[in-house]
Amino acid sequence: MSDRSTEMVTEAPVTRTAREIGKVTKLKTTLLVLTLNEIEGMKAIMPLVKREWCDQIIIVDGGSTDGTIEWARENGYFVYIQKQRGFRHAYTEVLPYVEGDVIITFSPDGNSIAELIPPLVAKVREGYDMVIVSRYLNEAQSQDDDFITGFGNWLFTRTINLLHGGKYTDAMVIYRAYRKQIVHDLGLTQDEGYTMAEKLFHTKISWEPLLSVRAAKRKLKVAEIPGDEPPRIGGERKLRVIQWGGAYYFQFLREIFCWR
Ligand SMILES: Nc1nc2c(ncn2[C@@H]2O[C@H](COP(=O)(O)OP(=O)(O)OP(=O)(O)O)[C@@H](O)[C@H]2O)c(=O)[nH]1
Ligand SMILES: [Mg+2]
């Protein structure tokens, strides 16, 4: 599937000296597996993730009570249990444990196809700052979307493209790989990008949409590869359509005026 990836670079395509390519291909990778009561998904999906695909795997848990944590530890995974509630705190808290130069974020609830990890890593090693597994590129499809989430993802992606100069087909998905350095360069660990949106909509949000917005604003080298989103396996959906939708949309508008 990786041969049908889109290039979103605005400058010349990646042309590098052999020395630079050497540096890029040596990049170490850390897979972050996000869990909150995903025992069925974990049992079905994690055996499909070959441990040699990434240099490090961390299970980042939001406080599961269904045996997810115990199962992960029994199967030899390092588990980090977040202290503060909410996706973005999962990421900021686990960051000091990340040894890789590249972070891959992965959902073990059935929505992320494990076999796409190697082509995703290969693509990022071509020299991109971020590579997204797009559910809407070429023939890729989401079987997890309902009408509202499908429309929301379309609207949010188009809004980011229009307001911030992105060329995304999927600016919202978790499944992606990016260089750890850009987390700092784009100020993703700083509260200022989230607090007003979170207060207004009484929720905690994740950082993928802001990452997409700021990567577009900075004109980073971004690519997408197509990847289906199969339906969720077991467990419960945590998505809060109205609250997260409102908070993310507010963030996109705020970014017109804030952050360079
Ligand atoms: N560490 C952590 N993981 C979470 C949290 N909320 C959800 N997750 C996990 O993150 C992964 C991705 O969740 P999502 O796919 O965004 O949410 P979902 O509930 O599956 O909803 P949809 O996929 O949009 O239908 C799942 O494995 C969830 O269990 C959280 O607050 N902390
Ligand atoms: Mg999901």
Short key terms for the protein model shown above:
260 residues; 10 helices; 15% strand; globular; binds guanosine-5'-triphosphate
Summarize the structure.
Helix content is 37%, strand content 15%. It is built from 10 helices and 8 strands.
Low-confidence stretches: none
The proportion of residues forming helix, as a percent range, comes to: 25-40%
- Could you please say which CATH topology applies here? Spore Coat Polysaccharide Biosynthesis Protein SpsA, Chain A
Radius of gyration: 17 Å
**The first-level CATH class name:** Alpha Beta
Bound molecules: guanosine-5'-triphosphate, magnesium ion
Question: Counting H and I runs of at least 4 residues, what is the number of helices?
Answer: 10
Content-based structural category = alpha/beta
What portion of residues belong to β-strands? 5-15%
Placed side by side, the strands forming the largest sheet appear as 1-8-6-7-5-2-3-4
Domain module count: 1
- CATH architecture identity: Alpha-Beta Complex
Morphology call: globular
**Helix-strand pattern, N to C?**
EHEHEHEHEHEHEHHHEH
Mean pLDDT, all residues: 92
CATH level 4 superfamily = Spore Coat Polysaccharide Biosynthesis Protein SpsA, Chain A
Description of the structure:
The protein is of the alpha/beta class and 260 residues long. The protein has a single domain, classed as Spore Coat Polysaccharide Biosynthesis Protein SpsA, Chain A. The protein contains ten helices and eight strands. An eight-stranded mixed sheet has the order 1-8-6-7-5-2-3-4, with helices on both faces. The longest helix has 18 residues.
